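Entry 14: structure prediction run for N-acetyltransferase domain-containing protein. Input pasted below.
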Amino acid sequence: MHCMKIIFEKNLYKLYIRHKPDLKIIDLLKRTCWGTKETTYQHQDTEQNIMKVPDPLFFSLEKEDKLIGTCCFSKRSIHKNNHTIDFWYSRYFSIDPKNQGGIFGNMILKNIRTYFEKEIHTPSVFYAHVDASNTRSHKLLNHIGFEKIRSFETLTFSRLYPKKHKAAQMLLQPDKQIMLDLLQEAYKNYELAHFDLRFFDGNYFIFKIEHEIVAGIRVNKAHWIVRHLAGFSGKMIMTCLPYIPVLSRLFNPKDFRFAAFDGIYCKAGYEKEFFQLMESVCAIHKVSTGLTWMDTQSSLYNRLKTAMVGELWINSKSKFLPM
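Run finished. Output tokens:
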């Protein structure tokens, strides 16, 4: 049994905290459909991905040993100017479908906030990413003190038959410190962006020209099942696209496998090489589609958007590319 303790109790309800998810939490997250009324999807490989979450705290609300809902906060500490700041990322917030629409989401988040206010003494920042059309989550987070600070947009890259370019390669030890310095300089104005050498463990790729790194990207393979797309076009995509041999390589709702990109670096003027790096990584991982999420106010986003003709399709409101 995982070490846990009760941090809230009222009548038959108990809110537990633990450092590792138990089987009930894993089972709920496997069954959870994420997204909104327009788009819903399920994460696959859930258990493996949960175990990769760094320094997590899992909260779970139960009634008579039956799980009602859960939420995870993952901690990352940054040392700056002789001070330590903890950043807590909220993720995996899910209420069992039989209990949705009630008070339980508010009950969980309100008591999590109370716990942190009592137990956490280091200066801390709490943040989360929420789908723009998910009004319920917006209301819950606003109720406990969160406020919107930025918007992200989904960027999609696709190639029916991606090819690997010779200049694309996995980041190896001799170049890791160089790549770290490049990322830290590129994201120096982003307090929530933090990189160290562990960021490059086995899944970071670079594009080199004459021994210079001009582009870099981290990749994680993702696997979803898309359960619902709203509207007539969504219905057509769901029912027809899986049976069109060529197009189903790009998007198969029953088995949507793609490369999820982050840690993006692109030297100004080398956007074409960055796209070639994305194509190469897709080829290496045997997928035809890659997704990433970018700050719409960043200079990098604007550079890529300007250079995207024939390369990227960007649409934050796309039915089949949820944020």
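Notes: The chain has two domains: 4-149, 154-314. Will compare against the previous run tomorrow.
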